[in-house]
C-alpha cells in the first residue's frame, strides 16, 4: 500500500506584515475558519501553523495552491475595503448619468479605490 504524502504549503507574509497590510495572527484565524474540503470545514485533516511571519498549511487530502491564493486575495480585499471604510465610498459618489446605473458607478469607484491602495492591479 502506497503511503500518501501530505500536501504542504508555506505562505511567507513577511513583507505585508512589515508594511502593515496584513496581520499574521488574524490571517491565520481567517484561514482556519474559511478553508473547506468537500464543502465542509475540516480542521482534523488540515493543520495551520504560524512561525513569526510564515504560515504553513498541511493537508492530508488533495489540496489546491490556487485555493490558498483565492483565500489570500479574499482576505486582502476585505481588509482593504474595511480600511477604506464606507465613509470614503459615500463621499466619492457623484450623481450618475442616465446611461450608467448607480450600482455600476459604485462598483467602478470601489475598484478604483482598491487599485489606489494596491490591493489588486486591474479590473
Can you give a write-up of this model?
By secondary structure, the chain is an alpha+beta fold. Helices cover 48% and strands 15% of the residues. The chain is built from 4 helices and 3 strands. It has helices at residues 14-19, 24-34, 65-91, 102-116, and strands spanning 7-12, 46-51, 54-59. The protein has a 3-stranded antiparallel beta sheet, with helices on one face. The radius of gyration is 19 Å and the shape is globular.
Distance between the termini: 48 Å
Strand order of the largest sheet: 1-3-2
Q: What is the beta-strand fraction?
A: 5-15%
Overall average pLDDT: 76
Task: Reconstruct the topology from this structure.
Blueprint: E1 7-12, H1 14-19, H2 24-34, E2 46-51, E3 54-59, H3 65-91, H4 102-116
Antiparallel strand pairs: 1-3, 2-3
Summary of the model, kept short:
Helices cover 48% and strands 15% of the residues. With 123 residues, it is α+β, with helices and mostly antiparallel strands.
What are the main properties of this structure?
123 residues; alpha+beta; 3-stranded antiparallel beta sheet; single chain; 3 strands
Amino acid at each position: 500500500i502506497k503511503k500518501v504524502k501530505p500536501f504542504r504549503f508555506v505562505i511567507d507574509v513577511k513583507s505585508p506584515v512589515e508594511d502593515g497590510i496584513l496581520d499574521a495572527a488574524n490571517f491565520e484565524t481567517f484561514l482556519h475558519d474559511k478553508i473547506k474540503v468537500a464543502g465542509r470545514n475540516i480542521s482534523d485533516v488540515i493543520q495551520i501553523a504560524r512561525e513569526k511571519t510564515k504560515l504553513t498549511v498541511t493537508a492530508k487530502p488533495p489540496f489546491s495552491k490556487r485555493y490558498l491564493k483565492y483565500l489570500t486575495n479574499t482576505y486582502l480585499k476585505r481588509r482593504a475595503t474595511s480600511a477604506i471604510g464606507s465613509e470614503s465610498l459615500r463621499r466619492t459618489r457623484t450623481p450618475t448619468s442616465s446611461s450608467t446605473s448607480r450600482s455600476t458607478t459604485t462598483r467602478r469607484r470601489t475598484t478604483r479605490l482598491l487599485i489606489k491602495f494596491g490591493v489588486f492591479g486591474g479590473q
